[in-house]
Design brief:
This protein is 76% helix and 0% strand. It has 152 residues and is mainly α. Helix 5 crosses helix 6. The chain starts with a helix and ends with a helix.
């Protein structure tokens, strides 16, 4: 058994979850509670990885993060390494690819939370709200990912 591949997968999964939790909440919040003109555009951008074929999405990410792109040049200037075909590039691509799978459960969880129930006297409302949402999101995301690819 190749333990290096398993450890790399676990490391990637950990980084992607750590990065997607705040990103997912920050993107889901306006989709549920805010009213603004670009809400449909934001929803479409969040769903983009579900609509594009994986090869097209991969090509766009390589072009966007390549050494000739502004993102690639900025990354190389800051870190001294290229972003494409590196672990950091893998993390960025995985985060982008998995955004819809995190956002959908966040939106469902936020829509289902009774905001008046969190209005407890003396309680930290933000902590209670995040706790209520986090358990729901992690459970839903785990089920969705396991259903989609049970052994990968």
């Amino acid at each position: 058994m190749d333990w290096q591949a398993i450890l790399l997968s676990l490391k990637l999964a950990l980084w992607v979850v750590v990065l997607l939790l705040p990103v997912g909440l920050l993107l889901a919040w306006p989709l549920v509670f805010a009213r603004f003109r670009g809400k449909v555009v934001l929803d479409a951008l969040v769903s983009l990885p579900l609509v594009l074929p994986p090869t097209v999405l991969g090509f766009y990410l390589i072009v966007a993060m390549g050494p000739r792109s502004p993102i690639g040049r900025a990354w190389e200037a800051v870190t001294g390494h290229t972003l494409v075909f590196s672990f950091s590039g893998l993390v960025v691509a995985s985060v982008f690819l998995n955004v819809p799978f995190f956002i959908q459960p966040f939106v469902s969880a936020l829509a289902g939370v009774d905001r008046q129930a969190l209005d407890l006297e003396g309680a930290n409302q933000t902590a209670l709200f995040l706790l209520a949402v986090s358990f729901t999101v992690l459970l839903c995301t785990s089920i969705l990912r396991a259903k989609e690819r049970p052994w990968s």
